[in-house]
Amino acid sequence: MTQPVLELSGISKRFGAVQALSEVDLRVDPGEVVALLGDNGAGKSTLVKVIAGVHPADTGTIFWDGRAVPVAKPGDAQQLGIATIYQDLALCDNLDIVANLFLGNERTTGGVLDEVEMERRASELLDSLSVSIPSLRIPVASLSGGQRQIIAIARSLLGDPKVVMLDEPTAALGVAQTAQVLDLIERLRDKGLGVILISHNMADVRAVADRAAVLRLGRNAGDFRVEDTSYEEIVAAITGASDNAVSRRAGRVSVPGTEEA
Amino acid sequence: MTTDAQVTPGSQAALRQANRERVVAALREGGTLTQAEIARSTGLSAASVSNIVRDLRSTGAVSVRETSSNGRRARAVTLLRPPGVVVAIDFANTRLGVALGDSQGRLLLEESIAYDVADDPVRGVRRAVWLTETLLTQARVDHSMVIGVAAAVPGPIDPVSGAVGGITCMPRWAGFAPGSELAERLGLPVTVDNDANLCALAESFEGVARGVEHVVYVNVAQGVGAGVMISGQLFRGAGGTAGEIGHIGLDERGQVCRCGNRGCLETLVGAPHLLDMLPQYSSVEHGATLEGLIAAAVAGDPGCRRIVSEAGSALGRGVAIMVNMFNPQMVIVGGAIAESGELLLEPMRRAMELGALGSALADLQLVQGELGRRAALRGALRTALVSTV
């Protein structure tokens, strides 16, 4: 078994009276796409925010490359090499692609913006992701939804992260654009990055994810290898159909030789 | 070539399928029924009937009309055709297409995406399954309504094992059986055939070759393949490699081909070879696509015209051999390069006159395909439909 790049153990998080996460475990290997699935309110976004350092966990440990690390603020996560792309993408519509990629991280020479160097780095980065964008100097407002998502992902890669978290990257995208984003996720995996993918779309999950970790009501509700799990098993874990009164009773009274097929 | 896979008994999908069959049986027996009547005669709840009718309606299997029964509003449902959807998948070198058709072969929905299919067969299949599932969701068609799936692959397919032949324009697919991989992921039986064969089928069923018995369809893309229809039937050969004309040797001092011979037809007309021929200072830059080359040729660029015209001559010499062998009534040229029309066909015709028997050419029509690049998908839809009967 390979050393997981990121491992969470016993993460709990409470907001006042709401126990958002209780004793959640998660692991991501390098070069692995893990889909984080769950119904609304299952704790997916909270878990992402715990990893990103936005809401530090109350209890539990985060292991990075096998050693326990504190993640108390977003800067900690970034320092470790965890990049997060939220649904709103946080792009500046009026700026061009290069300016967006280097936003807050501009390269300068002698106190002046080094546009040439930034453009060179930008095109190098986009080429390495096989992204074709006609011009790097057009404002982001004129890009399609899929291209904006790709730019947002590309921007997160400038910091050389080891784990990328994507929150619903394909929601509200058309078929061809979704395909582009899925291509990019595959390429991130090929580069050896760990990817955490939050999605409600089972087709997308089955297309790119290696593993599916299911959360339900703030707890782990299953961890499946996507290749050998049926669609229905995963949906059952999300909705809790596999964990109802009947199956629990069956578990309690199971006597050898009388299990149901 | 067809692989078996069935819906697990007792699963939700099986239940939905059984319920739908009950509704269809009730309609078949009773003609036009209101939703309430269907619910009574099948014993299903009104909500289930409403859901099933909605599914059937989205595929055009039933028509729904607002009416009244005993002074109340009601919805009268009539069965138009047997329910069911067929799926066609087209694996091209750098594109992936999926189409959904109804049980009478009409197109419901079609989508194609750019994808490096040649790079990895398992990923190509995985992405094809994604596109299929996405389209089914978009068309509001339940997975259990799919009655047949067929896929087109640019390479010879062994009729027994379903594996792609050793020499194809997608070398990483050699020995891979896309049919069984697709069937396992989709949970449905899948038929796989060579793309040129399916193009020939489509053109003779609904394209330029309607009513023509003996047809050769030449598909020119990365490589060259031909689909041969003899007396209205596809001829695949013992190992599925009939019509692999790309490896007819034409120039013993030509380029070495990936098949190990020299000067094969493919090295004279295949897309990468044509793009390599682009002159240094032409109006089309290096790194252009075949579409760009053809557009430039049509617009009158002399270098590109020359490339297309020489490709036509080479193709004519290769096809002349087939014409002598099979004496077809029609030769159809398809694939991207066919869009250059007479620029390609004229030199091709002249080369065929030099290379084939006069009597074989007397009744021969040389034409451009009518269905264009959708031919393979249309043929796969047709095959998927036939596979269900």
Automatic annotation (TrEMBL), chain A:
UniProt KW ATP-binding keyword: yes
Pfam families to which the protein is assigned, alphabetical? ABC_tran
The record's PANTHER family line, in alphabetical order, gives:
CARBOHYDRATE TRANSPORT ATP-BINDING PROTEIN MG119-RELATED, SUGAR ABC TRANSPORTER ATP-BINDING PROTEIN
Which InterPro entries does UniProt cross-reference here?
A: AAA+_ATPase, ABC_carbohydrate_import_ATPase, ABC_transporter-like_ATP-bd, P-loop_NTPase
Task: Give the organism's phylogenetic lineage.
Answer: Bacteria, Bacillati, Actinomycetota, Actinomycetes, Streptosporangiales
- One GO molecular function term? ATP hydrolysis activity
Entry-linked Gene3D superfamilies? P-loop containing nucleotide triphosphate hydrolases
Q: What is this protein called?
A: ABC transporter ATP-binding protein
* Origin species: Nocardiopsis ansamitocini
Q: Does the keyword ATP-binding apply?
A: yes
Automatic annotation (TrEMBL), chain B:
Q: Which domain of life is it from?
A: Bacteria
Check the record and name the PROSITE patterns matching this protein: ROK (PS01125)
Q: Where is the DUF7343 domain?
A: 19-63
Entries under PANTHER family matching the protein: GLUCOKINASE, ROK (REPRESSOR, ORF, KINASE) FAMILY
Q: Which family does it belong to?
A: Belongs to the ROK (NagC/XylR) family.
- Descriptive protein name: Transcriptional regulator
What is the native source organism of this protein? Answer: Nocardiopsis ansamitocini
